[in-house]
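We recall that each integer encodes one residue's backbone shape. We quote one record:
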Amino acid sequence: MILNLKVFAPVAAVVLLVAACQSVPDSELESNSVGSDLSDSVATSSTSDSDIDTDSIDSGSLESEIEVVDPSAPIPGTQEDLVQNVGDRVFFGLDSATLSPQSRSVLDKQAKWLKLFPDVSITIEGHCDERGTREYNLALGEQRASAVRSYLIALGVEAQRLNTISYGKERPYALGHDEESWKSNRRSVSVIN
């Protein structure tokens, strides 16, 4: 009943306002059909509202069905959604393109997420730390990106949705020259195209 009043009251106010603003010749004022039509519809609407059994409505179930949207939440299917809700990167050991159990766990989530958004394609970037030659790191970065791609394909993601690129040591995440920085740079990153 309250919901119907919340919807009906503004609509009735707009109709009354529009009707009041309309100029009508004096000869038609005595037989104003707009006012009588509006009165009839208000009366009809009022009687139909009283026919509703409001006791049978469980307000608790209505509250649980209302989806509260967090305005700061990322839009589903975007890079921000992937980063916040799934994870966009996996890490590798020194001179290795082998996926760790932690990496496989992240990639399992990525595969599920990609299946939810079948129109999304990604580029898998392979990265390395600063040690080693440029050529060696480009090849190792490609092996890392290919390992991620192969794993996602094995989980059912279509191959045509997955591109790879190697940046080697050219795009470090951490700029330090210590083991922590090197660990952060030995990674692959999934980026939405």
In short: Helices lie at 2-21, 26-29, 33-50, 59-65, 79-85, 101-116, 134-154, 179-185. The CA atoms of residues 71 and 81 lie 13 Å apart.
